[in-house]
DNA sequence: TTGTAAAGGAGAATCATTCTTATTTAATAA
DNA sequence: TTATTAAATAAGAATGATTCTCCTTTACAA
């Protein structure tokens, strides 16, 4: 995604467009694989050599807060960040820490129907996701 | 579950039966709601007033390693522990940190069939779970 | 009962994340 | 364009869950 689009995306949410925010969001989009805060720091260190790690966390929080990105939890304990905000699922590699998007509209329908039919007493569903664990051939 | 059953469960995995291990596993079973290490520490502090927090973590690791319990990750960052090891899903309260078991054999079948039919190229599925987020009426 | 590998206690260390405070800056309006 | 100011950043200290180290204790097999 071009820088101008990124600037617009930030501005449209009423956030100030700062070089740090642009660099971080660009990093998430171009890394494109659920990076950690540290991965992002590494990726932007040429363009933002003096950025504070605390700033990265604060920017990430702001982006999550405004639904520009999503937070992804893993077994490993470190938070990961996701630039793809449509409803989707994840493939988790149990050998390395790779997380790949898994988009499956048929699965979404299947689950939506299932949960519509089978109400859970005492619980109101907001959303759901399938975590698929396994191994990639490439790993 | 009676203490003797717990001692057997530990011994059967080739682990030494120590009062600390028995107390921790008993705590997980009787708390029965995906406690944190700290929840467990609180629960056993009368019977094990001198247990080191590091011991709790080491015992939990050993129990997970031997498939007596399972680790559950959450958004909140703290690890939770689950004494129910059969394949099941979880209901996550987005208001408090409550996690309830969600057992749905029909859902398991649905997903198993779906993933059998729809192979994911380059990925070999080991297992999967549905994370259901929402709110409990009681919260 | 003894020997020994395994387990526990105490507390320091780690490390991802958050917090604090002073300084800088993006956006707005004069 | 410049001045104003609320919001954002830098630096680094603090936090807190978890892990590690080292020494002592214990479960259990012989
Ligand atoms: Mn994703
Ligand atoms: Mn459970
Ligand atoms: Zn992998
Ligand atoms: Zn709740």
Descriptive overview:
Two copies of one chain form a homodimer. With 139 residues, chain A is an alpha+beta fold. Chain A has two domains: 80 residues, Winged helix-like DNA-binding domain superfamily/Winged helix DNA-binding domain (Arc Repressor Mutant, subunit A); 46 residues, Dna Ligase, domain 1. Chain A is 41% helix and 21% strand. Chain A contains five helices and five strands. In chain A, the strands form two sheets. The first copy, chain A, has a three-stranded mixed β-sheet with strand order 4-3-5, with no helix packed on it. In chain A, strands 1-2 form a two-stranded antiparallel ribbon. In chain A, strand 3 and strand 4 form a beta hairpin. Chain A is globular, with a radius of gyration of 17 Å. The first copy, chain A, starts with a helix and ends with a strand. At the A-B interface, helix 5 and strand 5 of A face helix 5 and strand 5 of B. Strand 5 of chain A pairs antiparallel with strand 5 of chain B, so a sheet runs across the interface. The site of one zinc ion has 6 residues of chain A, from loops. Chain A binds a DNA duplex (30 and 30 nucleotides) through helix 4.
Strand order of the largest sheet of chain A: 4-3-5
Radius of gyration of chain A: 17 Å
CATH topology of the largest domain in chain A: Arc Repressor Mutant, subunit A
Question: For the residues shown, what is the average pLDDT of chain A?
Answer: 95
Kindly report the greatest chain-chain contact and the residue count on each side: A-B, 36 and 36 residues
- Small-molecule binders: manganese (II) ion, zinc ion
> Which regions of chain A contain 5 or more consecutive residues with pLDDT less than 50?
none
Q: Mind describing the biggest β-sheet of chain A?
A: 3 strands, mixed
CATH class of the largest domain in chain A: Mainly Alpha
Per CATH, the superfamily of the largest domain in chain A is Winged helix-like DNA-binding domain superfamily/Winged helix DNA-binding domain
């Amino acid at each position: 995604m071009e820088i101008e689009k990124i600037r617009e995306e930030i501005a449209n949410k009423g956030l100030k467009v700062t070089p740090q925010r642009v660099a971080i969001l660009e990093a998430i989009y171009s890394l494109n694989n659920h990076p950690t805060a540290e991965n992002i720091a590494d990726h932007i260190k040429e363009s933002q050599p003096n950025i504070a790690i605390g700033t990265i966390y604060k920017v990430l929080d702001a982006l999550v807060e405004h639904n520009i990105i999503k937070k992804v939890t893993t077994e490993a304990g470190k938070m990961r960040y996701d630039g793809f905000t449509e409803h989707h699922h994840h493939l988790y590699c149990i050998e390395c820490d790779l997380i790949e998007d898994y988009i499956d509209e048929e699965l979404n329908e299947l689950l939506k129907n299932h949960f519509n039919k089978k109400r859970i007493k005492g619980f109101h569903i907001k959303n759901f996701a399938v975590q698929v664990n396994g191994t990639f051939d490439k790993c």
